[in-house]
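Researcher: Let's do a round of design. I'm pasting the structure tokens now; please hold your answer until I've finished.
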């Protein structure tokens, strides 16, 4: 690999790091270790460098800080998600409690949702029990192309939620995008168990498997 080739590969690798992506570099038919934000890949000299395969890490937006979020963040990060925690309450948005998160954002839904701009690789989990957060948040998420939207709450609470959104004029196919109660039905009780059920459902959706709660 000459200097120009090496520089080009380094630029591409830095782009992967900046975007929170995971990828592989192939040089002279030798595949280097994955490039991740934890460190660079290495390669053998000679030949021309190119990406044989690369993909972006899926994003997980967690709306609602607290005990369940504290349990969810490290599990989701370990499963390969780039996690952002969003909450308008300063007392709960303490970055030290979410060391595995890529970022912790303080703000109301009308501030945080536009700033994170959910796209088709975005998964969103709503853990806030406060209607002042959930009521303005769900329409913003439903209006986005987010791949997954999960909402905490009992089946009765979710039924009322669906009824409210339908009355507001949201089409059935849009309302059906909501996974509620969030997570696979594992009989989870504790925040840690709920976090496991949520990550299990996220992985099921990501891998194209049945993900009904």
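Researcher: That's everything. Go ahead.
Model: Designed sequence:
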């Amino acid at each position: 690999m000459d200097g120009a080739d090496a520089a080009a590969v380094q630029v591409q690798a830095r782009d992967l790091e900046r975007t929170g992506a995971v990828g592989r570099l192939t040089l002279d038919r030798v595949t280097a270790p994955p490039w991740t934000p934890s460190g660079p890949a290495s390669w053998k000299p000679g030949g021309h460098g190119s990406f044989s395969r690369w993909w972006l890490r899926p994003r997980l937006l967690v709306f609602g800080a607290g005990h369940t979020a504290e349990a969810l963040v490290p599990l989701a990060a370990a499963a390969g998600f780039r996690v952002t925690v969003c909450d308008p309450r300063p007392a709960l948005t303490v970055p030290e409690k979410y060391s595995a998160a890529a970022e912790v954002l303080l703000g109301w839904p009308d501030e945080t949702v536009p700033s994170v701009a959910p796209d088709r690789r975005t998964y969103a989990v709503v853990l806030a029990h406060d209607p002042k957060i959930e009521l303005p948040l769900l329409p913003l998420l439903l209006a986005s192309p987010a791949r997954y939207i999960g909402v905490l709450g009992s089946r009765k609470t979710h039924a009322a939620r669906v009824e409210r959104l339908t009355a507001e004029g949201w089409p059935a196919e849009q309302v059906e995008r909501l996974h509620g109660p969030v997570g696979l039905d594992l009989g989870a009780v504790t925040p840690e168990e709920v976090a496991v059920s949520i990550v299990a459902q996220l992985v099921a959706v990501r891998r194209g498997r049945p993900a009904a709660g």
